[in-house]
Amino acid sequence: MKETKPVPTMGAKDAPDAVYDARTQGTPKMALFGLQHMFAMFGATILVPTLTGLSVSATLLFAGLGTFLFHLLSKGKVPAFLGSSFAFIAGYAAIAPNGEAELLPYACLGVACSGLLYLLLSLCFKVFGPKRVMRFFPPVVTGPIVICIGLILASSAIANCQTNWLVAIVAIAIIVVCNIWGRGMIRIIPILLGVIGAYVVAALVGEVDWQPVADAAWVGLPVLWDNTVFSVFGAQFDAGLAITAIITIMPLAFATIIEHIGDMSAISSTCNRNYIAEPGLHRTLLGDGLATMLASLFGAPANTTYGENTGVLALTRVFDPRVVRLAALFAIVFSFCPKFAAVISCMPACVIGGVSLVLYGMISAVGIRNLVENHVDFMRSRNVLVAAIILVLSLGIAYSADGAITFMVGAVTISLSGLAVGSLVGILLNMALPNEEPYWDGGLAAQAEADDIGLPLEAEVTNLPLD
Asked: Membrane-spanning residues where (predicted)?
């Protein structure tokens, strides 16, 4: 039997309270640890289908299956959970602005194709190494892109809040209080608590129709054929819409890929294991990309590694990937309960608006933090120009009269969203303009080098709550 290569440490001894094998704690405790991870990802994961119109049941199913696939490809060594990605919400909104059932499969097609970029970068990381690849995606490009994702979505949050500002403010208040003054698990799940609290208030003021919950079955299949990408390939296939969806949504993967790299660095630092060296970033990217493609093809949101679960790792000091796989199993079990999905689907727009107002703002704040933490020098004209053009193109086109740039290629009509145009132009402009600064490698080369020579590397645990 081939010997398993151990995961290298990051130059420091393991903490005495750290648990790398949860089996030593007994089965009941392992189950509780798994449930805790499931609840940590729960609020954000089910919020994405609620905002976009996708299936909640399919989302839970493929969050669990995607996590298992990720663990399989990363040799079962990385304690990461894959949940719904918020970065693609703008893409769904561009193709199916009101969650139209007939348009969502085309949006899912675009997301599935974006998974190909994960596979391509995974191959590039394997062949060329991280330093040569990351030079094309420095913070001066990715930071403004992430900022625009949140700002473009802001108008929909306000529109939902306007249906009942009282309920929306309750959701906002609960999230803020739990996140700032909460302790232990309360601080880990402010989104979930905000949803539950505001939902209860909405029910008390008569904003909830419970009939769909009463009509729903207790057990059912989480995936419907009409919601899958495969359903659009037929006599009614719209090639122009498919091409538009692919071109519009694929660039969003650049932001989530950078997010993935940040999450892997954070998990490595939290667990005192260099997962970038072993099993390797090429494996984790491959797992994330294939999980995203699988979920999208069957009508579920794109998957991404979840910062909330990194927070649980830091809180509990239980670093065993088996615990995360238990959380994935629980998510799969919940996916086969249509009554549970109906409870989520009945959530009023005002609840969604209050929660999304905070989340969308925090997405933009993550982009700003990306610029600040990487010390992007805005005294340099080239950096100002790159960021300015990304911001103006992305926001200007998104809020223009047409909302996109539309043109014909033969008989096919193609529409490019502001975010797609801004991302592509920003990447090309950054490559074209002279740059005397050393290219950014995401800190990956430094981390790998420090680990190879046995030196400790100080790394900040970056908890990204908006995966």
From this structure: 30-48, 54-73, 80-97, 103-124, 136-159, 165-181, 188-206, 239-258, 323-345, 351-372, 384-401, 407-429
Cβ proximity of 255 and 46 under 8 Å: no
User: What is the secondary structure of 243-262 as a DSSP string?
Assistant: HHHHHHHTTHHHHHHHHHHH
- Both tokens of 398, joined, read 């998104």
CA distances for 419 relative to 276, 356, 370, angstroms: 30, 19, 18
In angstroms, rounded to a whole number, what is the distance separating the alpha carbons of residues 154 and 181?
Answer: 26
CA dihedral defined by 401, 404, 407, 409, rounded to 10 degrees? -160
Average pLDDT over residues 162-177: 93
Question: 252 falls in which pLDDT band (50, 70, 90)?
Answer: confident
Domain edges within the chain: 26-433
The DSSP letter of residue 277 is I
State the amino acid at position 434 in one-letter form.
P
Query: Interior CA angle at 95 toward 91 and 100, to 5°?
Result: 120
Tokens of 130: 């991280």
What is the model's pLDDT at position 193? 84
pLDDT, tens digit, for every residue of 266-294? 788 778 888 877 888 889 999 999 999 99
